[in-house]
Amino acid sequence: MLEDPQTRELDRVRTWLDNAKHVVFFTGAGMSAECGIPTFREAQTGFWARFDPMELASPEAFKRHPEQVLQWYAERRAQALNCAPHAGYRAIVEIEKSRRVTVITQNVDRLHQRAGSRHVAELHGNLITESCFKCEAVDYSQPNLNAPYQRYCKSCGGQLRPSIVWFGEQLPAEQVLKAEDALLTCDLLFIVGTSAAVYPAAAMPQLAKDAGAKIVLVNPERTEHAVLSSVFLQGAAGVVLPALLDRMNETA
Ligand code: BV8
Ligand code: ZN
């Protein structure tokens, strides 16, 4: 019986995985889509439909109307805390049991960490904590959804803001270094659930390509990263990654 091309491609990737010493998973909003967190561009449903996320996710928007920006993040935080990582996240954690794995994520929902991934470079910050707009001290206490959203720093009185990297803000240097080191030393890179639209993150997989890593694209549709990829596993992250793990276990 002729195997469908996907099964052949899955087997090709499984062999690479079997021989890989260091695997990197570079993930975007599509990784969380099956957990119920809409991707960045679909996220504007309901009340938020009339806002442009690029607009809201900026220091200017926070300065102009902090309450509205803080409410948007408070609702997204509640949504993220209400979700559970799917089988694709757990497949990555399983793979980490038998070889070095680094996750580089553009997502801010911390689902990789909740699934059990231990080496995560978080390029765009996180929804869960807040930090001081003035002294950058991190505040780990959870805002009370019924109290006013605007809270102030315990050490300097500055406004607290989500620990998120907004458009126009630099990515955290230590996370970028961690990501670049992983991309330069991995032998296999999976690019999962990202539209490759946001920079400088979108340019990072090129580092792995130039360093000779094999690259696998996992997405229901082709993206600009297809030019870097040796294999395109077309499908959802919550389907493709568990299927890959099954393949590995079948032949182990
Ligand atoms: C900076 C937190 C400068 C916010 C985010 C060139 C170089 C450098 C910068 C720029 C540049 N050109 C433009 C810029 C500015 C800007 C930028 O990139 N703009 C874009 C829109 C053109 N970049 C910045 O501002 C960055 N900062 O460069 O600073 C600087 C330099 C010096 C000194 C000072 C400043 C900061 C960028 C970080 C912004 N913050 N997140 C928040 O969440 O509220 S980015 C945000 O959007 C997300 O975190 C995410 O990274 C991004 C959305 O992208 P994706 O994750 O790819 O999600 P998307 O919805 O687009 O795609 C989903 C994909 O999943 C699709 O492909 C879909 O097919 C797929 N999919 C769907 N379902 C599934 C699936 N895949 C698998 N399974 C499924 N089930
Ligand atoms: Zn402060």
Task: Give the topology, please.
Layout: H1 5-19, E1 22-27, H2 30-33, H3 53-56, H4 59-64, H5 66-81, H6 87-95, E2 100-105, H7 111-115, E3 120-122, E4 125-132, E5 138-139, E6 160-164, H8 173-185, E7 188-192, H9 205-210, E8 214-219, E9 231-234, H10 237-251
Parallel strand pairs: 1-2, 1-7, 2-3, 7-8, 8-9
Antiparallel strand pairs: 4-5, 4-6
Helix pairs in contact: 1-10, 6-10
The protein binds ligand BV8 and zinc ion.
Compact description:
With about 250 residues, the protein is α/β, with parallel strands linked by helices.
Give, in order, the helices and strands: HEHHHHHEHEEEEHEHEEH
Strand arrangement across the biggest beta sheet: 3-2-1-7-8-9
Number of E strands? 9
Mean pLDDT across the residues is 93
Structural class call reads alpha/beta
Beta-strand proportion: 15-25%
Q: Whole-number radius of gyration? A: 19 Å
Bound molecules: ligand BV8, zinc ion
Q: How would a textbook summarize the main sheet?
A: 6 strands, parallel
Based on Cα principal axes, name the global outline: elongated
Q: Helix coverage percent of residues?
A: 25-40%
- Alpha-carbon distance between the termini? 23 Å
Q: Which ranges are low-confidence, i.e. pLDDT below 50, for 5 or more consecutive residues?
A: none
* Count of discrete alpha- or pi-helical segments spanning 4 or more residues: 10
